[in-house]
Automatic annotation (TrEMBL):
The active site is at E385 (nucleophile). It holds the Pfam family Glyco_hydro_1. One of its GO terms (molecular function) is beta-glucosidase activity. GO terms for biological process: carbohydrate catabolic process. This is 6-phospho-beta-glucosidase. The lineage of its organism: Bacteria, Bacillati, Mycoplasmatota, Mollicutes, Entomoplasmatales. It comes from Spiroplasma litorale.
Length: 484
């Protein structure tokens, strides 16, 4: 079957903290992602365990690392030194876009400096220029789960309004330096993670709050500061360049009610509103939707929002929508057998197979999601993450026969094609990921997503050499023929 849309962007996505390594060179500060140790005994289906280590003490201890723990994201896949080789492999796979994130901790290591770190600016200038040399359009995630530790330590994360101005200063620096090298800008990765995993999303630590209700209040106030910061940089960016393109990035977890009981249908509507639509609504429609005000009232969230901020949100909304799509789940008013999802726990779906991490594979759900988002917002759509994590090893021919990944990717691409035939304006896709990286949630190399295998284990032992998997050759051919 032929993929219909010709002017479609095809590429891969990575994140600084999961690929770069070089955590302590050229002036970079530590980030919360690099302060999470590898946990060899982790139950891969109990994601909440992987975030339990994020106490202030564990984070401070990680700095001197007296226990000699391993922090995988300090090493990544050494992309900091090998990005030229990697970009060449992406180009040779006939990719025409690369989604990457810039590490705030390389540009303003403490967040509150007046002047940016020149070596950080230089690194990304070289990296972005290399993308252009490889005819890769660039989608930049301005912050991707790697808040600089000093911002968390000194300011307690996004709960502090000073961080809004620090983020704006950071963004203005990037716009001044890289406006001509970047085609699409995503301010914050999976902005809804700020509610489900606040440490990664907004850098607030649960132990800093005396009660659950204070913690919920802080989660939504910190998130509000991120919404305001996004609208402010949309306004600033558009004044600098009227053609600049801003998108959001939401961890999209589509769910279905466990049965046709209206009670469960309503529960699913509630879950969908709170876990994803709320975030799209604020950024695409420019206002807090009515249902969230009832949720706030019932959960004692007294959002501090001014009339000026409401105007700012309304007048500075998105140019396009991006989202990550891995899996779907079910919801039910009664307790259902739980499965896992991208940082969210959802119900099992007896009609779907799941990965070793419990993520339920649902290509048709992607068509459903694309139709839903197009109907709701009528904004161009872009899938900024999609892929399957698998435990893999190189075979004797120095490759991986990853037919399961070819199956996963081609089935999801088929459904994008169906959505396009449904009339949905979806214009691009960056798989997660073109190359094996350190996983975000479980913090391990063993959860491999790439078309390219990287010879590192969970302790960063190995040559770091890159090897092409079977799926790399499949993708390259798909791009040549357009045949799914
Ligand atoms: C999203 C992140 C990515 C990526 C992906 C896969 O949450 O945006 O950083 O890691 O999920 O998740 P994981 O690496 O935990 O399997």
């Amino acid at each position: 079957m032929k993929f219909e849309r010709k002017d479609f962007l095809w590429g891969g996505a990575t994140a600084a903290a999961q690929v770069e390594g070089a955590y302590d060179v050229d002036g970079k500060s530590l980030t919360i992602s690099e302060m999470r140790p590898y946990q060899s005994k982790l139950d891969r289906k109990k994601l909440e365990d992987s975030l339990k280590t994020l106490t202030r003490k564990s984070l401070v201890d990680s700095i001197e690392n007296k226990e000699g723990l391993h922090y995988p994201k300090r090493y990544g896949i050494d992309h900091y030194n090998r990005y030229k080789e990697d970009l060449k492999l992406f180009k040779e796979a006939n990719m025409n876009i690369y989604r990457l994130s810039i590490a705030w901790s390389r540009i303003f290591p403490n967040g509150d400096e007046k002047e940016p770190n020149k070596k950080g600016l230089e690194f990304y200038k070289n990296l972005l220029t290399e993308c252009k040399k490889n005819n890769l359009k660039v989608m930049v995630t301005i912050n991707h789960f790697d808040l600089p530790w000093p911002i968390i330590d000194k300011y307690k994360g996004w709960i502090n309004r000073d961080v809004i101005d620090m983020f704006i200063k950071y963004c203005k620096t990037l716009f001044n330096e890289y406006m001509d090298l970047v085609d699409y800008w995503l301010p914050i990765n999976e902005i809804n993670i700020g509610v489900v995993a606040p440490e990664l999303g907004t850098g607030i630590l649960k132990e800093d709050y005396k009660s659950e209700s204070e913690y919920i209040q802080a989660k939504y106030q910190a998130l509000h500061h991120q919404f305001i910061a996004c609208s402010k940089i949309f306004e600033i960016g558009r004044k600098m360049n009227k053609d600049i393109k801003f998108g959001c990035m939401v961890a999209n977890v589509t769910t279905y009610p466990s049965d046709c009981n209206p009670i469960n249908q309503r529960e699913n509507q509630r879950f969908q509103q709170l876990s994803r639509f709320f975030f799209y609504d604020v950024m695409a429609r420019g206002e807090y939707p009515s249902y969230i005000w009832r949720y706030f009232k019932e959960n004692n969230v007294n959002l501090i929002i001014s009339e000026e901020e409401k105007k700012l949100l309304k007048n500075n909304t998105l140019d396009f929508i991006t989202f990550s799509y891995y899996m779907t789940g079910t919801t039910s008013k009664e307790s259902v057998e739980k499965s896992n999802g991208n940082l969210m726990s959802v119900g099992k779906n007896p009609f779907l197979k799941e990965t070793e991490w419990g993520w339920q594979i649902d290509p048709v759900g992607l068509r459903i999601t694309l139709n839903q988002l197009w109907d709701r917002y009528q904004l161009p759509l872009f899938i900024s993450e999609n892929g399957i994590g698998v435990v893999e090893t190189l075979n004797k021919n120095n490759t991986v026969e990853d037919d399961y990944r070819i199956e996963y990717l081609s089935k999801h691409i088929e459904q994008i094609n169906e959505a396009i035939k449904d009339g949905v304006d979806v214009f691009g896709y960056t798989m997660w990921t073109p190359i094996d990286v350190v996983s975000a949630t479980t913090n391990e190399m063993s959860k491999r997503y790439g078309l390219i295998y990287v010879d590192y284990d969970d302790y960063h032992n190995g040559s770091g050499n890159r090897y092409l998997k079977k799926s790399y050759h499949w993708f390259k051919k798909f791009r040549e023929t357009g045949e799914i």
